[in-house]
Design a protein that fits this description.
18% strand; six-stranded antiparallel sheet; 146 residues
Length: 146
């Protein structure tokens, strides 16, 4: 997990948000990581992260069995078109296998539980693509476009 975070930190304009106990973020987010394109270093007000790492089950999202020891899931907004190009499995709890996100797969999100030898390189590539797409969206907004 830390290797993924460290890699994403090298992206220009990235904001890596990692809520911790005692901070301003809700307890449920503690231990998770959120990736934004935010060259000013501030969490964008009207933008979702383009990638996340979650370390536990959420009340509405238990399909990946993340409450088991040593499990985490990387979630990446790749878009519907890109998701259709990827070989996605069907089991959101399978380790080291790309699958549609259990809740947001229809919106073009993919996920991998415990990326390993089969998926680690692809995860890093997809995170880079998602970052670049988030940057392009931000630049369009800054120019007054959609």
């Amino acid at each position: 997990m830390q290797q993924i975070v460290d890699h994403v930190r090298t992206f220009e304009g990235v904001l890596v948000l990692a809520p911790e106990p005692g901070g301003p973020h809700p307890e449920i987010a503690w231990g998770d990581v959120f990736f934004y394109y935010a060259p000013d270093g501030a969490v964008p007000e009207r933008t979702q992260p383009y990638g996340t790492i979650v370390t536990k089950d959420y009340p509405e999202d238990r399909a990946s069995a993340l409450d088991a020891p040593a499990r985490f899931r990387v979630n990446i907004q790749v878009g519907r078109e890109r998701a259709a190009q990827l070989a996605l499995g069907e089991d959101p709890a399978a380790s080291d296998a790309l699958a549609p996100h259990p809740q947001y797969g229809d919106a073009g999100w993919v996920s991998v539980v415990n990326p390993g030898s089969r998926t680690a390189g692809l995860v890093l590539t997809l995170l880079r693509e998602a970052h670049d797409a988030a940057r392009a969206r931000a630049e369009r907004r800054d120019r007054g476009g959609r």
